[in-house]
Specification:
Layout lengths: L4 E4 L15 H9 L1 H10 L3 E6 L2 E10 L4 E8 L8 H17 L4 E7 L3 H9 L3 E9 L2 E9 L1
Parallel strand pairs: 4-5
Antiparallel strand pairs: 1-2, 2-3, 3-4, 5-7, 6-7
Helix pairs in contact: 1-2
Amino acid sequence: MDNFKVHVFKQSHMDGFEPQSWQEKEYERFKSDGAALAGYVEGNNAALTIMMNNRVMCFCGALPLYDCGCNVWLMFSKDKSVDNIRSTTKIMRYLFSYLQNIGYLWTQTLIRTDYDKGHRWAKLLGFEDTGEPETHLDDVYTYWKKVF
């Protein structure tokens, strides 16, 4: 990937990481539940760390679901160099390729219902809104699904 280096996720990559403001609650939960979850994703190579100029730009990964599916998740840095659609689209296309290569047939993700930018981005990446809401961390999210 242009200008990006991809690494298998390690918990140490979280040191000094600061998420975008709209992901702060999710990141705090990841850190607090984190020892178990971060240990799981590290131990199962279920996540990647994307770096640029030796700085963590994002973490992304997948948790297995039924019928060869997975729930994809990502945490973006508040660093402005990652805050553009071209970079994030490139990162996600890399993740989709990675997931297909390890045998996943479809993926889903949760996007806050009030985060319009996230909905536009999901559509651009080929996700479809399932209309299935879920309350999580006192916010309402909607599931978005993509079949590879």
